[in-house]
Amino acid sequence: MIILGRKSNIEVKIRPWNPGKLGYACMPLKRNVPNPKHDDWKLVSCPVCGSKCWEGDLTRQVKATGMRALCTECAIRAGVGKRR
Asked: From CA 23, how far away is CA 5, in angstroms rounded?
């Protein structure tokens, strides 16, 4: 387990994903990565907030295992149990 940081009594942790449990894959936001260097990245919308983000081959592979792909912000919020 890795503790990313602490702010306002919220602890953000990254843990290994176990198949069969709900997990979130982070998709890079277009506003953070306007011009991707990977040809396999496709522009998609986050299913939660609608922000434009990039979905690559790796993201498509982990989605096939049952993980849910969200923009980075929504994935972090979901991981700490906060909604927008």
From this structure: 20
Distance of alpha carbon 46 from alpha carbon 2, whole angstroms: 25
User: Which residue matches tokens 């602490």?
Assistant: 6
d(CA 46, CA 54): 9
- Residue 36 to residues 29, 42, 48, 65, Cα–Cα distance (Å): 10, 9, 22, 25
pTM of the predicted structure, to 2 decimals: 0.72
Per DSSP bridges, beta strands 24-27 and 10-14 are unpaired
Average pLDDT in the chain: 82
Contact 12, 75 (CB under 8 A): no
Long-range CB contacts for residues 13-19, cutoff 8 Å, separation at least 24: 13/79, 17/67, 19/65, 19/66
